[in-house]
Amino acid sequence: MPKQTFFNLPEGKRKTLMNAAEKEFARVPLAKASISNIIKDANIPRGSFYQYFENKEDLYFYLVTKETKGRQEFFIEMLIKHNGDIIEAMTEVYRDFLIQMPDDQEREFLKNALMNVTYKMENDFIEIFEGKGDNLKEINHLINKEYLNISDDKEIYHIIQIVTAVAFRNFVEKFSKELTDDEAMETFMIEMDLLKRGLYRNK
């Protein structure tokens, strides 16, 4: 998490630093990223960098968190739109990710993040759909239990885990196999349909 001195910066300087960081993390994975390149591109002294962040990992996961936060808000909107149908909501999020794929730099940043998955990265992704604190309560409340083949509400958590794991693997596969958007969507829809057959009540 950034230090308070980072948040005290004028918005323009924060954006410049974030853009420089994203450019570097788009160029190479986190392990190979260089703080020197980031501070050179952002035109700040090395000492200033450490006034804002503990290290490059701190900066990297702040960027990842920023990227996933908007996705969680969209997921909640889709749950409302689809009357709590978690698979339909997840499908909309996945489709939107493909259609609204960010510009080349953001695309490469996400690609490097997903192709070099860490436990922390996977957890950040899962939090989009699981939520935490008030968001967790809101997501659980919005999921329509009547659709699901469950015996009690405790099983909701495990259904979210299953659906999220499949979605996450599909995001990774999109980049690792260099699938077109249509190919990625086709694979995703097949797997979502299989999940629906197993997790949903017979209508």
**Rg estimate, integer Å:** 19 Å
From the spread of the alpha carbons, the general shape counts as elongated
State the order of secondary-structure elements, H for helix, E for strand.
HHHHHHHHHHH
Number of helices: 11
As residue ranges, the low-confidence spans are: none
Number of extended strands: 0
User: Which percent bin holds the helix content?
Assistant: over 70%
Q: Strand count, sense and closure of the main sheet?
A: none
Quote the average pLDDT. 87
Percent in strands: under 5%
Query: Span between N and C termini?
Result: 46 Å
Q: Which class do the helix and strand fractions yield?
A: mainly alpha
Descriptive report:
With 203 residues, the chain is mainly alpha-helical. 74% of the residues lie in helices and 0% in strands. It is elongated, with a radius of gyration of 19 Å.
Short overview:
The protein is mainly alpha-helical. The protein is built from 11 helices and no strands.
Which features would summarize this protein structure in a list?
single chain, 203 residues, 11 helices, 0% strand
Describe the secondary structure blueprint for this structure.
Layout: H1 4-7, H2 11-27, H3 35-42, H4 46-52, H5 56-81, H6 86-99, H7 104-115, H8 119-130, H9 134-142, H10 155-176, H11 181-199
Helix pairs in contact: 2-3, 2-7, 5-6, 5-8, 6-10, 6-11, 8-10, 10-11
